[in-house]
Specification:
This protein is an all-alpha fold. It has a domain at 2-111 and 236-338. The chain is built from 14 helices and no strands. The protein has helices at 2-25, 30-38, 45-67, 75-91, 97-109, 113-141, 149-178, 180-190, 196-211, 219-246, 253-266, 278-288, 294-322, 327-338. The protein is globular and about 60 Å long. It is a multi-pass membrane protein. This is Flippase-like domain-containing protein. InterPro entries: L-PG_synthase/AglD. The chain crosses the membrane at residues 42-61, 125-145, 157-177, 222-244, 256-276, 296-321.
């Protein structure tokens, strides 16, 4: 049953990617895309790639602080696990990279995989807070060209909805941690209209998950978590600005921030492995809001996706080879924890 569900999600994602690719390419003049690539200043690619890996390294640093209540883990283990996890997200469906990342580190450091995965949920929560901060800053500072007022209003509405959903998740997790039995009992009552197997699977999983969440309360370590989050996303946004400059597109930094927010939401949408289609659509439609020509916007999207796709795959496979890790075996072990 798990396998069938897994395949269903995969094919739904492939279908969404295919539809988006058709929408993106059907009105494109290939000659103008080639002209955009010929005009590109490729010297911007090297710093863009370096900054992308700096962002991953900062993720490893933040992960170290999240793991401190369990074990003082070295960056020599954390950085390769982070890269392998993101490589897996690019190659495997259903965002299995998160489980791969937890499994690889747990095996190397002799930690409980469930507890390690719990730290990655906290990791994503810090990402969510930071992205929300970027979104709020962008909504109050970005100025779209004339005629795009409806888009700007739509962005604000989307920001408020996202904020409300995110606050709801935070409240639920706080209740789950502080009043575990009460929250699980309430959830069980809410799930009564559904088949019994749903509650039988979800409630024990949540109980095990919340038991594994531990976070330092030391001010210095909490400050390190927040500072590292800001650096992570600053070094993720900077390459967007550099790629735009490589194509001769001069936009304020708030434009790069807005495009990054679009990309964050895009990778949440079911898609084929590597976020093909969803990633490109988010970038293209984000740039169209700034009156960037469609062919130029698609060229930017292809380069940005390539920067975030190919280098991490190459380095990820290097770490798999160096540490004699089988991606197939890791995928199978990770799939067992998901299904």
């Amino acid at each position: 049953m798990a396998k069938a569900g897994f395949d269903k999600r995969l094919w739904i994602g492939i279908g969404i990617s295919a539809v988006l690719l058709v929408m993106l390419f059907r009105q494109i003049d290939g000659r103008q895309v080639l002209a955009a690539f010929r005009s590109m200043d490729y010297r911007y690619l090297v710093p863009s790639i370096i900054l992308t890996f700096v962002s991953y390294y900062c993720r490893a640093i933040r992960w170290r602080y999240l793991l401190l209540p369990q074990k003082a883990t070295s960056l020599a283990s954390l950085f390769p696990a982070t890269i392998v996890g993101y490589m897996a997200n690019n190659l495997l469906p259903a965002r299995l990279g998160e489980f791969v990342r937890a499994y690889v580190l747990a095996e190397k450091e002799r930690l409980d995989p469930s507890s390690v995965f719990a730290t990655l949920v906290l990791d994503r929560l810090f990402d969510g807070f930071t992205v929300l901060l970027i979104l709020v800053l962008t909504l109050f500072t970005v100025r779209l060209p004339e005629g795009m007022e409806p888009v700007q209003e739509g962005l604000k509405l989307g920001g408020y909805v996202t904020l409300a959903l995110y606050v709801g998740v935070i409240v639920f997790l706080v209740l789950l941690k502080r009043r575990t039995h009460w929250t699980l009992d309430l959830l069980g009552r809410l799930l009564r209209p559904f088949p019994a197997r749903v509650a039988e699977k979800i409630i024990p999983l949540l109980g095990s998950f919340i038991a594994g969440i531990r976070m330092s309360s030391r001010p210095a370590e909490l400050a390190a978590l927040f500072v590292s989050s800001l650096v992570i996303w600053s070094t993720a946004i900077w390459p967007v600005d550099l790629v735009l400059r490589s194509f001769g597109i001069s936009l304020p930094v708030t434009a790069s921030m807005l495009i990054m927010v679009f990309l964050v939401f895009a990778v949440m949408v079911p898609a084929s492995p590597g976020y093909v289609g969803t990633y490109h659509a988010a970038c293209v439609y984000g740039l169209l809001a700034f009156n960037v020509q469609r062919e130029m916007a698609l060229s930017v999207a292809l380069v940005m996706h390539g920067i975030n796709f190919f280098p991490v795959i190459l380095v990820g496979f290097y770490y798999l080879w160096r540490d004699n890790i089988s991606l197939r075996n890791v995928e199978e072990q990770s799939a067992k924890h998901t299904g």
